[in-house]
Amino acid sequence: MIKVIGDEGIQPASDAGGAPDGSPTPVIDVPPPRAVRRAADLWRLLVSLAVLVVTVLLAVATRDFAREAQDGLLTSVTALPAGLRDGLVGTVQVVALLAPVATLAVWCVRRRIAPVLRVVPAAALGALAAWSLTRLALAHSRPDAWPEVLVGRRGLVGAGWPSAVYLAACAAAVVAAGPWLGARLRRTLWGLTCVCALLSLAAAGIVPLDAGAALAVGGAAGSAVLLMIGAPADRPPARAVADALVASGIPVATLRELPAAEQRPGEGTAYRAGTTTGSRLAVRVLAAEEHNRDLFHRLARRTLLRHPSAATVQSALGAAEHELLMLVFAARTGARVAEPVMAYPVGASGALVATVDKGARALSALPVEDWTDPVLTGMWTSVARLQEHRLGHGELRPEHVLVEADGGSRLDAFARGRLNAPPELLGTDLAELLATTAVRIGPRRATACALAGLGPDLLATALPYLQPLALIGPARREVAKYDADRARAESRADRRRTLRAGGRPSLLRDLAGEVETAAGTKAVPLAHLARFTWKSVLGLVGAFLILHLVLPQLANFPAAVDALRDANWWWLLAVLPVTFISQAFSTCLQLGTIPDRLPFGPTYQVQFASSLLNRITPSNVGGMALNLRYLQKTGIETGAATASVGLQSLAGAVSNTVVAAVFFAWAGRHHAGVHLALPDSRSLLWALALLLVAGGLLAFTPRGRRFLQEKVWPFLRAAGSTVAGIATEPAKVVVGVVGALGLPLVQVVGLAMSVHALGGDLPFLQIGAVYMAARLIANAAPVPGGLGALEAGLIAGLTALGVPAGAATSAVLVYRLLTFWLNVPLGAVALSVVQRRGYV
After folding, report:
1. Mean pLDDT of the chain
2. Interaxial angle between packed helices 569-591 and 600-614, expressed in degrees from 0 to 180 and rounded to the nearest 10
3. What is the reported pTM?
């Protein structure tokens, strides 16, 4: 506990251990309780999904090993006496039956409807997901002897109950009921669920992978329901806050919780307290929920940034004390900050921070006309004092600037502040406040006010940090929304326009220009903040690619060298332009899938860069991501850009199918080795059922409807307008069709010339049929560019049609060298160019 009692008329009570004798009971005014989305539920969902993914991978990727390991456990179980196994089964069944029934009965008797409305859908969702998973992914990893082990064993019912489906439902119910249970009862129910799973394993009623998957599915289902519908906030009640203030020696007369519109998410619950002496306090109460939310912030910074510069606080009381001390140090620098009063524990795990309340309002809550130059200049003057003493704030945004009635401003919320802050934190503070004020008043005026308060030298230190990576959190979202709104407004003002690569409106770029002009300095390189860069990621992925995919290809190198001695080099040289022509067709495909006019040159360069990423990522994921980023940077909305990338993939799949059908028909050969297997109808039905359940959760909950209205429908409208815009322009359709059909055809031409150069004598139609058949097979392989699978398919197809094995191998290797591997150095150069020019 820390107290810093100022001179604002706040007098401690006569008895520091409690309320003064005869003092009236504080009047507490709080709004009705409301359901919230808790960070703890999101953490639990992520952990459960991670465990589930690992379990499924073990069952699918190591199916034989998993079956043998579980078979060994069954062998050990069958050595137990039959009576002991039956006793274990009966015990598990009694507990599994009575525990949920008793809990639901107690809630119904006490009329606790809220937990029941979470528990029932969570249990249903967990059971449905577990049923689907155990039949689709885990069925083939079970030991063959498992059903026979259960023969003759019984408890109350069959020995196979409780099944994995029932365990998943119980786990989901326990998670969904958690917010309404005490810590002891919650641990007891979790213990019973885990004990049931362990005893079922000991009695061979369930296999280990099914048990692990059931608990993970239950945790994910219960957490998902709580995130969708909401749960009570994990925070101390208002009565505990009032008691803590009285116990600290503050004679509280009134305590009022601020409405939701005035609360700052993730920063505790804000109250206004009045004392018996007429003074007023601003009180913020921290709880475990705030600590959980802060974990996401710290994890993001530690993952993305080289120097996270984040304070690590392990408890609510530690966070409160840290913030109070930072306020004291900040005031000593000469900055105007909120006047600290005390930090004090609340309840078992909460804490409060109290400051003097002078009736100030957050700068973000004021209308723009009240953002006067004196207010902003005073704010920047306080920031200058912090910068001069190397005191970092960590969250310097308008909502943490308090404006008093006389126009004076004070800085608040130093929870992430640091003494002797590194340059990265100090520069980020300036960049964050500059960007978030420019969102409201524009870059020019925001820079002018910062210059008046900071001076040119301090202002110039913000230049290296005017980049998105320096704005992690709400500031980054504000800037992104501001830029998206500007891009949308420009698009509506001039719908039929030629886009400029990298021409998307950028507030940070505009701010950098204003700061350079105001401070009288030249452009400086951006600070290197990223922990991971394109070069480091591509280097790691490239090393993996070479070790696992490229080196096996070198086994055929001697045979290829022998065949190359008699090759026709003029035909091999003719294969070289195939790489450049194929990227031209790819460019045409992208130009034809967006209503606006894209410049050909930059788009062509981006396609080469995408080809590099496609060489190291499966299913062309890297190239699609880069194309999406390129379209966004030109000023196209995310929905429209995503629709364009999706149309490119769809057009490519359709064109490959059409070209393959034409070649197969014309070649007059039946390719019995190519099969297109459809999923089992039952699997499709269960997948559809899961989608309907998820859609129901979205449609029938307030938060789900809000998500649909604010996120999904705008995205779908943008995608729909993109498709409609393309359909009304025949020229776009023609360009897109030419690009989609030209891509596979030019590859067939390249393969035909390679075969001809190595002495092969096959008709063009047969070569085309071989290529398309091998491409269909390679597309199913989970490797970048079908590496290995495509080569094997081409060599097998060519040799089957009469080409000598050595010539076929050499032709395929040369073809892949000139059309696949040549893209690696060219794509690396193109990626460097488009990054340097700001296209992506």
Report:
1. 79
2. 110
3. 0.73
